[in-house]
Amino acid sequence: MDLTQLADDALLRGFATLVAQDRKTTAALLAHIAEIDARHLYLRAGFESMRAYCMRELNLTEDAAATRILVARLARQLPQLLPAMADGRLHLTTVRLLATRLTSANVGEWIAAAANKSLGEVEILIAHRYPQAESLRLDDGISPQVVVLQELGENSHVSKHASWTPPSDSPAAESTPNTKSVDVAPRVRTKIALLSPERYTLQVTLPGATHDKLRRVQALLGHAVPSGDVAQVLDRALDALLVQLEKRKFALTEQPRAPRPRATMRCIPARVRRAVYARDAGRCAFVGQNGVRCSATSRLEFDHLVPVARAGRSTADNLRLLCRAHNRYEAERILGREFMQRAASR
Question: What is the second-level CATH architecture of the domain 270-345?
Answer without folding.
Answer: Orthogonal Bundle (1.10)
